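[#protein-structures] MJ: dropping Pyridine nucleotide-disulfide oxidoreductase here for a structure pass
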Amino acid sequence: MSNENFDVVVVGGGPAGIISAVTARKYYPDKKILLIKNTEIGVVPCGIPYMFKTLFKPEDNIMGDAPLQKNNVSIMVDEVVAIDRKVKTIKTKKGQELTYEKLILATGSNPILPPIKGIDQPNVYPIVKELGYLKQLKERVLKAKNVLIIGGGFIGVEFADELAGIAGLTVHLVEFLPHLLQNSFDEEFGIMAEEKLKAKGVNILLNCKVQELKEGKGATEAYLSNGACLRADMVILGIGAVPNTKLAREAGLDLGKGKGIWVDEYMRTQDPDVFAVGDCAGKNDFFTRKDLPVMLASTATAEARVAGSNLYQLKVVRENKGTIAIYSTWIDGLVMGSGGLTEAAAKKEGFEIVVGQAEAPNKHPAAMPGAEKTRLKLIFSKQSGIVMGGQVAGGMSAGEIINIVGMAIQKRVSCTELETLQMATHPHLTAAPTMYPLVLAAQDAAGKI
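AK: finished. structure tokens for Pyridine nucleotide-disulfide oxidoreductase:
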């Protein structure tokens, strides 16, 4: 394939790269499309925490090439090492030189390595999205007696929940903020997550930092800011990631005010023939336009669809011009979701808000088998009544309720519209029409507006 010409080249084989290529094929059926990935066997990012116990085997979490093959997208396993934007060529580690008309960078992110003394010792494991690495990590976990997880965001919490289910394994979780999930949820929701993990035996240390890691006799000693010392057979870094922008920077592409590649509303860099999507691309908050360090496969695939459809002409006009940072997670049966601004974040930004809250069974009547309480919190602008954020906790249906909230935020739905929402209900499937959480929370807020 040396010196071959392509119309569209996608760099990166994660969700953003795959969906970019597939979308490009849909909108531009006659174009010659290539996807280059540096890992032969990638994994589904969101499924990584569940490769240790929930999934039968790690291979069940493979992200295969079927969507690319089905859409006649060529695949190359190699690493792009240089981009020459003047002549529109790329060079790879294996010596290939390829030309492109349109280039999509989906280079993802790299795990954060915090400035902790001793962080580079062998017993410390960042989360790398590669099957072989994760299989080795699983083997190591199953031999361990004590595991220390650093970071109480989604990654750390989901790992703690999964590993706490392995018999004979003690799990410690250290978070420097006052509560778990605090970047995405208000305090009362973080406490719910903490209670769930504590009930599974996880030792949670909040308002606490790991200051140093030392290799002791057969274990790692973690010295904490509270003066304690924990001994663990291994340390897992669940702190998050930073955009992988090395290739873009070396090609002279600008970064935004944050750490990601600068892009416009259509995921175009300052070079109109180079796009960036997913973790490597900068994000702007939906309400403030400030840089937003959100790295989610759901966000990445939404961006990929925007880029793939608009490579040659702006075919799909983008109405959602910012990132609403919508998440969901599952902690020992408790589903939690968050979208838009939390109450704390809204107040910090100076928004005048009102809060609406509701709690109701997710089936009706409440005596229905399997019924669980759904707790919902909505944030509204006091002046306009527009919904600005929401948080939910409850049973499995909570995972879709937050998606309704996300659509409401994206479309700037008012409190009145939610209060008069028309919904389908059924005893087995939903809350009662008289007690529907979205309506109740809107009514609660309406009285304050």
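MJ: nice. The mean pLDDT is 95.
AK: one more thing. The first strand starts at residue 8 and ends at 11.
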